[in-house]
Amino acid sequence: YVPPQVRRAQEALDDKKREELGRLKKMVNGLINRLSEPNLSSISGQLEELYMANSRRDMNATLTDILLSACVTAVAMPPRLVMEHVLLVSILHHTVGIEVGAHFLETVVKKFDELYKSDAEGKECENLFALIAHLYNFHVVHSLLIFDLLKRLVSTFTEKDIELILFLLKNVGFSLRKDDPLALKELISEAQSKANTVEKKLQDQTRVRFMLETMLALRNNDMRKIPGYDPEPVEKLRKLQRTLIHNSGSGKDTQLRVSLESLLNADKVGRWWIVGSAWSGAPMIDDTSNKTQPKLHVGKVSSKIMALAHKQRMNTDIRRGIFCVLMTSEDFLDAFEKLLK
User: Fold this and answer.
1) Which residues contact 168 (CB under 8 A, 6 or more apart)?
2) Which of these, 136, 142, 56, 62, lies nearest to 97 by C-alpha position?
3) Over the stretch 198-247, which tens digit does the pLDDT of each residue have?
4) What 3 state SS string does 4-19 have?
5) Per the domain annotation, does 333 fall within a domain?
6) pTM more than 0.70
């Protein structure tokens, strides 16, 4: 039972919160609508100020929703627009904190997984893939996730998968080759063997051949063999990113080395990649029978000290042990030695 006055207060609080969120959404939306390469610095600065003034959870949710509604549509988005939006995320990821990029990445990957399984007709999957590819290009996420996605696509190997593999390799292929050439080599050989086994099932043979040629061009580091490959726009924006991040004084490596499985099961096993991320749920290890309490070697302590410990509500062995050590030590050095034991 919730008393009426508490209910009224709760409703008033909810209305106030809703109003605040609506105002915040309007402000963030206004900034994102004006986003372009020349004013990226000022917009990222204004968003940083909003992060300082509002709760990070609200800001992450609002920013992610607005960016996804801007970039993920049923038609293919212009590459330049996607790049600029992801560059903004990468700058905030470095200047505000890694939870910005982590929240955005998790939402994008889960949405991609959902759409991929539902066999959506539009270009939403490609747009989400472009976001993931550029998150890797702008050093928000490690190549581990990209290889996980590619392995998943190679394992099913339908015509839609071939499209997505080609799209990803064209965007980040040479970066993957630089980061982990051995993993790329393994992936190419896996794709070749898969192509040989399912060759007769697929109708569009030329697409498969084109994908294998692209993979060979990557392995041989031959950029000319990939039609329409132009690394210049990404390089230009990377240069801008370095300038903005360098100015903020946060040059440390903040790449999220997280796998596809970890992202998809984040609600079940927690988000280990975010420092201090609160997690409520079932324990990660269910087997509690093997848990052993640490033995405390305090030595013999008098019943008087134990009674005192009980009186002070030292209700576990560890607390009682520490209390007894502190009460019976001769000096701080003696206490230190006993606590270490």
Assistant:
1) 129, 133, 146, 149, 150
2) 56
3) 766 776 678 788 888 888 888 888 777 777 777 888 889 888 888 888 75
4) HHHHHHHHHHHHHHHH
5) yes
6) yes
Per DSSP, the residues of 73-138 read -SSPPPHHHHHHHHHHHHHHHHHT-HHHHHHHHHHHHHHHHHHHHHT-SSSHHHHHHHHHHHHHHT
Tens of pLDDT, residues 77-88 = 898 999 999 999
What angle in degrees, to the nearest 10, is found between the helix axes of 181-197 and 159-179? 160
pLDDT at position 295? 45
**Whether residue 188 is found in the same domain as residue 333:** no
How far is CA 316 from each of CA 32, 322, 324, rounded to the nearest angstrom? 54, 10, 12
Contact between 109 and 116 (Cβ < 8 Å)? no
User: Do residues 181 and 325 share a domain?
Assistant: no
3-state secondary structure of 200: coil
List all residues 6 or more positions away from 6 whose beta carbon is below 8 Å from its beta carbon: none
Kindly state whether residues 206 and 329 are assigned to the same domain.
Answer: no
123 plus 222 within the same structural domain: yes
Label residue 335 exposed, middle or buried (CB < 10 Å: 0-12, 13-18, 19+): middle
Contact (CB, 8 A) for 94 and 250: yes
Domain that holds residue 258: 4-265
**Are 247 and 312 part of one and the same domain?**
no
Strand partners, 141: 256
Spatial contact of 144 and 257, defined as CB atoms under 8 Å apart: yes
Report the C-alpha gap between 281 and 269 in whole angstroms. 8
Kindly provide the b/e burial profile for residues 149-179, where b requires at least 16 CB atoms within 10 angstroms of the residue's own CB.
Answer: bbeebbeebeeebbbbbbbbbbbbbbbbbeb
The conformation of residue 141, written as its DSSP 8-state character, comes to B
Partners of 256 in the β-ladder: 141
Average pLDDT over the chain reads 83
Give me the number of domains the chain comprises: 2
The residue type of 338 is: K
